[in-house]
Every structure is written in C-alpha cells, then in structure tokens.
C-alpha cells in the first residue's frame, strides 16, 4: 500500500477523490487519486501469468481474469484506507490497447480474450472491390491492408471459429468489457479505440460502411459498442459490481482513454512542443495536436482524450519487454541478489549502466523484434561485437537501441508535423530509473522531465474524470493543478555528440542494409511451417 499527502492540500483546498482502475499487461492497479494529482493509495495485483499460450505465438487470457484482478485490488484498497474510500466520487478505467474479446447478449465471454501480444494470423484478405484494390495498390497500401486483415482477431474468429462469431453480440476491447461489468452498459471511450477495429479516429466514431478501408475489419455495425467522449458518463456502478468491488452502488463511471492516451495526458503533454515517451512493454513516442497528422503514411493519429485533438504515435512493439527478456536469459545473478534485497532486479542492472560508456564501445542493437505495418519482415539485430563486450554491454545496448528507435520515431513525427520538440516527458516502468532518464537526455539532446509519480496513466485517467465532474473548466487547468515536474535531466552535449554520430552514421542504416536478409529469413521460416 502506497500513500501520499496532497502537496497542495492546505488552506482553501477542498480535496476530492476518484478511483482509477489501470489494467496493464503485467498487472492491474487500483488507485485513489485526488484533485491535485496525488496518489493517496494504490494496490497492485500482478498478472501471473500475464497471458496463456495454447499454441506457439498465441497470447490469450480469460476475460474474467482482468475483472477479478480489479475487484481484488479494490477490496484491498478499501480495507487499507477506509476513510479515503468513502470519499470516492467517481470511477474511471484505463487499459492496455488492442486486447479484444467476443461476448454474447448477456455480456458473457464466448472465448478467451486476445491479448495484444498475440501473433496468430487469419488467412484471407479484405473483400475490396476491384476499383478499391487498384486504388490501394496505386498508393502502395494493398499489402499493408492485407497484413492488417490477417493480424485482426475478428477475422481470425470468422475464419476459424465461425460458431463463436455467429454467437457474438459485441466485439469489445477489454476496456469496454470492464466498463460493462461495472455499469451493465456496452459502451467505451473514443480515446480507447486503438486496435484492429474499424474506428475512424478523425471522426471519433466507427467507420461508415462505405469507407475505403472498412473491409479490413469488416465487423457488422450491430456487433460494435456505443462510443462516448472522454469526460462523459458511461453509466453507474451496478449492484453486482458494487458487491464485487465494495464500491457504492450508483457511483458514476466516467470515460477516460487507453493507457497510452492517459499517459500522455498524465505527463502534461497537451501542447505539441512536448514529446511524451513511454518506457513500457511497448515503447512509444507521441504528442498532442489539434491537427490530423499521420505519424506514418496512411497510419492514423489516435483520438486523444482532449476533444478534437490527436495523438500521432510511433511504437516500438517489444520496447521494454526486451528488459524482461534480458533478465530471463542473462541476469539470473541480479535476479537472485535482488530477491534477497527485496528490490527489483532492474534496479541492480540500472546501477551497472554507468559502468559502460555511451555507445557501448561499438555495440548497437536494433530493437525491431516484432514486425509492424511499415516493416512487415523486421527482426531484431545486434552488431559490433568484440572481445571487450560483456552482458552488461548488451543490457545498455538494449536501452540505447530502444532510444535510437524512439529518436528515429521522433524525427519522423517532427517531419510529418512540421515542428520541433523542445522537451521530453517520460513515463512507464523504465522512467523510474535515473540512469535511463539521463541516457535518454544525452541521446536526444533535450531536457527529460519526470512527473511527480510514475503512475502517469492513472493520473491521466483521473484528470479526464475530474474534468468530466466539472472540477476543472478544461484540460489545461486540470493539468496545471494535477501534474508537476519532479525531476529534470539535462543532456551532456559531449555525450550527445557521440550518440548523434552513431545514430546518423550507423543506426539509421542498419534496417535498410539488413532488410533483404530479414525478408529472406521470413521466406525461409515460412516455407518450413
């Protein structure tokens, strides 16, 4: 249990409290957040295991698993701080993205949820008209559309479990399912609709039937839930949820957004000169703008929590998952020592980052362990090995490699939007490390700022909640009152020059040089399965 006292709680301040359920890949959290951005208390429930793999490359989880975890966290929170619990005025939910499930008319899951890490593929292709396919081919989007179709779990269910699809009343993101369990309403926030679903981020609602790319995710309109704007009511805590969570029946549930959308807001990045970087399982760089700016050609900017605003974003899909991979494969010594000390193994590893110079003495990692829309055959690579390199060199190369990829993404965002970032705000698990924050400042050559809490997605969700409650007139006022900078890391420009040369002369060229080999590896692998 973590508790904090409101930094601005004093004369003239009337404290108000909301409850945020923050569901991630590795854990679910219940947080009590006040109207000054203080986390009054928090309970974390680990996901063990975070997903099930009935077959290779599959990642599933019982949909009820997530609901059970937030209920368990809520019960512990209520027992641990009953006085604050009684002050709860509203509830909001923020979750991982692109995690979907099929439910029947009663809202019961018809199968396990598809976790975003799932890599199974449908075998068909979108049912485009001949004219539409010619048009897509002329702009180089036909193969991308086919790939997105195959990655879509709705299409996989239609092909492989037609009886399940026939029974499906709604195809929901996990956020929509949790909202249903809490309120009885099948509705979700516009800022949560990030996944392989037919959502129009420009119009902040479902794509119309005649939209060019609608056949990629051709889910019938009647199987899609109602969309509401962040800050609006999604319903109230129903009797069954009150019994499960210990919340008062009738408490309002207010729309916020996905974990990344809430993280951007919780970092205070509501103007375009501020870049938001997330050091999470998926690492991202993003920002907020009132212009519809595609981060990459034909890739939409996601609907932001701020109405009529967007979050263009570049993702590194396996981001800080690579740290978990490294721990499992190379860091048994640190894991054992950390267990004895009662601290995370990452803390011991991060202390050792200072032993390795910038650039890892020529060791450079390309972190594209999972292909994406624009790099469908990408794989990970590490180059420059010599006899001076140790496993700690590899660890630092992972941190630097993720940052090189994020720097690449930030440069693309600047090019697409026509502006230059002035400062970086960091969130996610990696942002808790002073060493990683300083490396980031040195690599980007910009000040790196860390907010008052690393639970920035929870704070962002609470901000949407308070704005919806009328506590603040707008998001600008809410951010001013609820977000503050705890630490600033200023770049060492000598170190930055080392990184600049490595980025310009080495990292930027790796993918282009290796891409033909990745493609051939993909062909060889596919021919043997």
TrEMBL record:
Transferase is among the record's keywords: yes
InterPro entries: ATPase_NBD, Carb_kinase_FGGY, FGGY_C, FGGY_Carb_Kinase, FGGY_N
GO molecular function: kinase activity
The entry's keywords: Kinase, Transferase
Keyword Nuclease: no
Domain Carbohydrate kinase FGGY N-terminal: 18-266
Record domain Carbohydrate kinase FGGY C-terminal: where: 275-468
Entry-linked Pfam families: FGGY_C (PF02782), FGGY_N (PF00370)
Protein family (similarity comment): Belongs to the FGGY kinase family.
Database matches in PANTHER family: SUGAR KINASE, XYLULOSE KINASE
Protein name, entry field: FGGY-family carbohydrate kinase
Organism in which the protein naturally occurs: Diplocloster modestus
């Amino acid at each position: 249990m973590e508790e904090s006292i409101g930094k601005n709680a004093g004369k003239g301040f009337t404290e108000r409290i909301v409850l945020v359920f923050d569901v991630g890949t590795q854990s679910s959290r219940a947080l009590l957040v006040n109207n000054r951005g203080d986390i009054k208390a928090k309970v974390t429930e680990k996901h063990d295991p975070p997903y099930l793999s009935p077959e290779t490359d599959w990642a599933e989880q019982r949909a009820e698993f997530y609901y059970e975890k937030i209920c368990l966290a809520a019960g512990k929170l209520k027992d641990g701080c009953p006085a604050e619990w009684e002050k709860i005025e509203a509830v909001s939910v923020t979750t991982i993205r692109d995690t979907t499930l099929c439910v029947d008319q009663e809202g019961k899951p018809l199968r396990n949820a598809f976790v975003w890490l799932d890599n199974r593929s449908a075998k068909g292709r979108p049912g485009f008209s001949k004219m539409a396919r010619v048009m897509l081919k002329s702009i180089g989007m036909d193969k991308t559309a086919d790939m997105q179709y195959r990655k879509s779990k709705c299409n996989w269910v239609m092909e492989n479990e037609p009886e399940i699809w026939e029974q499906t009343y709604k195809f929901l993101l996990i956020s929509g399912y949790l909202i249903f369990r809490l309120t009885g309403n099948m509705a979700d926030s516009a800022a949560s609709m990030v996944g392989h679903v037919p959502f129009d981020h420009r119009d902040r609602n479902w794509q119309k039937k005649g939209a060019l790319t609608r056949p990629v995710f051709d889910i019938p309109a009647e199987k899609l839930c109602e969309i509401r704007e962040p800050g609006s009511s999604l319903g109230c805590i129903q009797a069954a949820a009150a019994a499960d969570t210990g919340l008062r029946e009738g408490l309002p549930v207010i729309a916020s957004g996905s974990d990344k959308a809430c993280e951007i807001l919780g970092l205070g990045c509501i103007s375009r000169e501020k870049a938001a970087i997330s050091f999470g399982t998926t690492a991202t760089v993003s920002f907020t703008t009132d212009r519809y700016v595609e981060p990459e050609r034909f890739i939409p900017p996601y609907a932001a929590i701020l109405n009529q605003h967007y979050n263009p974003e570049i993702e590194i899909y396996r981001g800080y998952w690579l740290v978990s991979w490294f721990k499992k494969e190379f860091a048994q010594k640190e894991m054992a020592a950390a267990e004895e000390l009662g601290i995370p193994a990452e803390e011991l590893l991060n202390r050792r980052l200072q032993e390795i110079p910038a650039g890892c003495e020529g060791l450079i990692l390309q972190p594209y362990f999972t292909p994406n829309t624009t790099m469908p055959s990408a794989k990970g690579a590490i180059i420059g090995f010599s006899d001076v390199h140790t496993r700690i060199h590899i660890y630092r190369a992972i941190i630097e490699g993720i940052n090189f990829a994020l720097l690449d993404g930030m440069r693309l965002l600047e090019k697409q939007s026509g502006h230059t970032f002035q400062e970086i705000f960091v969130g996610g698990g990696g942002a808790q490390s002073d060493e990683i924050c300083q490396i980031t400042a040195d690599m980007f050559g910009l000040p790196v700022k860390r907010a008052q809490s690393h639970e920035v997605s929870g704070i962002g969700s609470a901000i949407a909640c308070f704005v919806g409650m009328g506590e603040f007139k707008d998001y600008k006022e809410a951010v001013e009152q609820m977000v503050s900078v705890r630490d600033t890391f200023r770049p060492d420009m000598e170190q930055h020059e080392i990184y600049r040369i490595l980025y310009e002369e080495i990292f930027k060229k790796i993918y282009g040089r290796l891409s033909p080999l990745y493609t051939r590896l993909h062909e060889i692998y596919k021919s043997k399965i």
